[in-house]
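Hi P.,

Sorry for the delay on this. The queue was packed all week, but I finally got your sequence through. Input first:
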Amino acid sequence: MFDPDDEDRDAYTQGITDMLAFLHLGTMGYHTPFKDMLSEGVGKAEQRLAGSNYRMVNVEFSVEPVGQIDVDEVVEKLENEEFAQLTDEELRAFVRLLTMSDSFSPETTREEIKDRVDEFAERADESAAARERNLEELTN
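Then the structure:
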C-alpha cells in the first residue's frame, strides 16, 4: 500500500490526505487537540521504528489561517515589477483568485508563458553579460 513505485500511489496519497482532513475536522472541539494526537502518533511510530521508547522526536504542527491580501497592492507591485516585494501568501492567494476568474484560461496562459520564456531567458543572459562587463571594468 505504501510502495512509492506503485502506479496507484497518487490515489493512495489522496486517500491519506482525505483521511487526515477527516480526522482534523472530526476532532475539532474534541478534548484532546488534533495536533497533540498527531504529535503523539508520530512519536509512537518513531519509537516503534527505532525499537525503543527512548527515541524522542519533536513534532510541530500548526494551522495558521492565511490573511486577506490587498489585491490593489498586489497588482501595483506587479505593475511596478516589484516581484521581490510579493510575499508567498500574496502569490498563492493571487494565483488562486486568478484561476477563479472567468477570464482565466490555463491553456492560453500556458502558451503565453511558454512564448515569454525565451524572451525572459534572453534578457537574463543580457543582464548577466552586462554584469560581467561592468565587473570587469570595475576591477581593471
